């Protein structure tokens, strides 16, 4: 690509580079089509956590419960205890160039005569980069080593449709590959292998939004509970049910409605755990009056109330700034910054900030050239921001090159978003590296220094535990299996062959949290002497130990 001196004036260049068909408002029907699928999809609300998870076979018929290799140990217990990931989706395509600003860059001010953020309207991350004053609330995070910036995140062969690019980011697929599952959903499916037989009483993931995002979808269905809006959440949290039946009368119509609502409330199995977590604590910082802050305040209370979900997701819309960006974009960035500030202040007040990482993402960035409507069109890379206690400060990747651009006028991305995903899974959620590669479909480089390195926690028993076995001292020929449930709920106690095939179900049902002993005589269950595995399924997870008799 020619140097800037060989190019036409910036406005002519902006027009010339609008070859990404449908990426700009003035491309009429093509642009509308890019949005139509997006809007129809958002209108449809998917059911959360209603389907069955499937076991990971890793290319073999069964998993050998006796052969706990590092890979399988990481698979069974790779969640770093209480660590939590909060995803903040900037829906519409965030303008990264006005989020992480190249200070003193003449090219930036030449190609954005109306939209460029002036030096006196930003605060400095360092001598080279700054953020707009509308995001001043994030300054303490940077100065105290709680914030990292990943420059220019994107993917090869970028797609400029909101609908398609959002799916690519959610599925972590290549741009020419259609995948119906999401990267978080695939991870959670492998964490909760007993999701169907011994379902958890808490949602593995929770999203506040119109639909369950594809990011949580697994082969067996979504692994997240989707709550449409804060008002719906408050109904659940305060009343322990989704629908009110108290105001219905005794007439036939009301009775039919009461029956339907009652069945729906019973089907909503997480209401009690959500109610207990939310009502057991209070927010300890003030939140600004906007939707994102309200959603973040809800999540803070659930985290502080020890709900137990591993991933949360919130969305702020409006980043498709084709026009009026000078007014709208600073407002949106301010809402993001102030919500994050209040959220972490709330968690810090109770000591829960140590285990929480927040990460922003958007389906693409914006063009580096402004358009004729004081806005920007669909582009490629955009920065990703990470926040958390003791993660340090720093930049990763390289900032957009505003001179050497591609045929559409976009800089080449510097970090593949899947590199960031892999790093978060391995170094924050402590997923075994081989499992990370399996989840993402191939090996992506980790972003060096982005997060402190950590490995899988072996032997973690989050939802339950097998405490051991011994002969029953009160009855000859009987064996005692001892186990504990750390979370009340459905459970199953099984005997399997070493190959992983289930032989007998010894006990199953619903129990409160506590320690238990099951005493049995193998012959009464038609189990001849030999080598076996006994397995506890509870909270959607599996815990196994070998046994001989």
Please give the domain count.
2
* CATH class membership of the largest domain: Alpha Beta
Terminal-residue CA separation: 74 Å
pLDDT below 50 for ≥5 consecutive residues: which ranges?
A: 1-5, 7-19, 36-79, 456-461
Major sheet description: 9 strands, mixed
The helical percent reads 25-40%
Number of strands: 21
By DSSP (H or I, 4+ residues per run), the number of helices equals: 14
Helix/sheet category:
alpha/beta
Shape: elongated
- What average pLDDT do the residues reach? 83
Keywords:
single chain, 549 residues, alpha/beta, Alkaline Phosphatase, subunit A, Immunoglobulin-like, 2 domains, nine-stranded mixed β-sheet, four-stranded antiparallel β-sheet, 14 helices, 21 strands, 28% helix, elongated, disordered N terminus
Task: Explain how this protein is built.
The chain has two domains: 4-229 and 282-440, Alkaline Phosphatase, subunit A; 464-548, Immunoglobulins (Immunoglobulin-like, Sandwich). A hairpin with a 4-residue loop joins β3 (122-124) and β4 (129-132). Strands 1, 5, 6, 9, 10, 11, 12, 13 and 14 form a nine-stranded mixed sheet that branches. It has helices at residues 10-16, 28-43, 70-77, 106-111, 139-143, 162-171, 183-191, 230-239, 252-267, 271-279, 291-304, 325-350, 417-427, 433-440; strands at residues 84-90, 101-102, 122-124, 129-132, 146-154, 205-208, 217-218, 221-222, 224-227, 311-316, 356-361, 382-387, 392-396, 415-416, 464-471, 479-485, 489-496, 502-511, 514-520, 531-538, 541-548. The chain has 549 residues and is α/β, with parallel strands linked by helices.
């Amino acid at each position: 690509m020619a140097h800037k001196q060989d190019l036409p004036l910036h406005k002519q260049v902006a027009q010339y580079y609008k070859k990404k068909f449908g990426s700009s408002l003035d491309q009429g029907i093509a642009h509308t089509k890019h949005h139509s699928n997006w809007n129809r999809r958002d209108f449809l609300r998917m059911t959360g956590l209603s389907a069955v998870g499937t076991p990971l076979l890793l290319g073999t018929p069964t998993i050998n419960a006796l052969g706990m290799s590092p890979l399988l140990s990481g698979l069974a217990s790779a969640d770093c205890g209480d660590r939590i990931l909060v995803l903040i989706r900037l829906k519409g395509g965030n303008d990264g160039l006005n989020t992480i600003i190249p200070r003193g860059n003449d090219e930036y001010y030449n190609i954005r005569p109306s939209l460029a953020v002036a030096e006196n309207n930003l605060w400095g991350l360092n001598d080279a980069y700054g953020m707009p004053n509308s995001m001043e609330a994030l300054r303490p995070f940077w100065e105290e080593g709680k914030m990292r910036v990943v420059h220019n995140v994107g993917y090869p062969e970028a797609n400029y449709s909101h609908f398609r690019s959002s799916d690519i980011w959610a599925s972590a697929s290549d741009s020419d590959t259609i995948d119906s599952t999401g990267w978080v959903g695939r991870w959670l499916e492998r964490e909760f292998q007993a999701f169907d037989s011994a379902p958890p009483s808490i949602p593995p993931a929770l999203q506040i939004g119109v639909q369950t995002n594809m990011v949580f979808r697994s082969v067996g269905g979504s692994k997240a509970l989707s709550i449409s809006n804060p008002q719906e959440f408050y109904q659940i949290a305060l009343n322990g049910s989704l629908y009110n039946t108290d105001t219905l009368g005794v007439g036939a119509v009301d009775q039919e409605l009461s029956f339907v609502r009652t069945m729906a409330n019973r089907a909503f199995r997480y209401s009690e755990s959500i109610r207990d977590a939310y009502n057991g604590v209070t927010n300890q910082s003030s939140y600004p009056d906007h939707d994102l802050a309200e959603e973040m305040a809800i999540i803070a209370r659930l985290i502080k109330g020890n709900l137990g979900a591993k991933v949360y997701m919130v969305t702020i819309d409006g980043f498709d700034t084709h026009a009026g960006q000078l007014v709208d974009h600073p407002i949106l960035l301010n809402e993001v910054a102030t919500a994050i500030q209040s959220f972490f202040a709330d968690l810090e007040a109770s000591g829960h900030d140590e285990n929480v990482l927040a990460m922003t993402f958007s389906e693409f960035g914006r063009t580096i050239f402004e358009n004729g409507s004081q806005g920007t069109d669909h582009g490629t890379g955009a920065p990703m921001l990470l926040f958390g206690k003791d993660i340090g400060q720093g930049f990763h990747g390289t900032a957009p090159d505003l001179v050497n651009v591609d045929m559409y006028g976009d800089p080449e991305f510097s970090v593949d978003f899947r590199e960031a995903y892999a790093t978060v899974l391995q170094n924050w959620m402590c997923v075994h590296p081989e499992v990370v590669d399996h989840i993402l479909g191939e090996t992506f480089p980790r972003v060096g220094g982005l997060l402190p390195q950590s490995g899988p926690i072996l032997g973690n028993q989050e939802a339950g535990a097998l405490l051991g076995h011994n002969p029953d001292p009160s009855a000859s020929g009987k064996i005692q299996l001892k186990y504990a449930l750390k979370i009340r709920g459905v459970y199953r106690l099984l005997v399997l062959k070493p190959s992983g095939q289930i032989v007998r179900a010894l006990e199953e049902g619903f129990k409160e949290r506590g320690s238990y002993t099951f005493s049995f005589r193998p012959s009464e269950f038609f189990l001849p002497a030999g080598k076996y595995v006994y397995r506890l399924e509870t909270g959607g997870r599996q815990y196994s130990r070998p046994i001989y008799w």
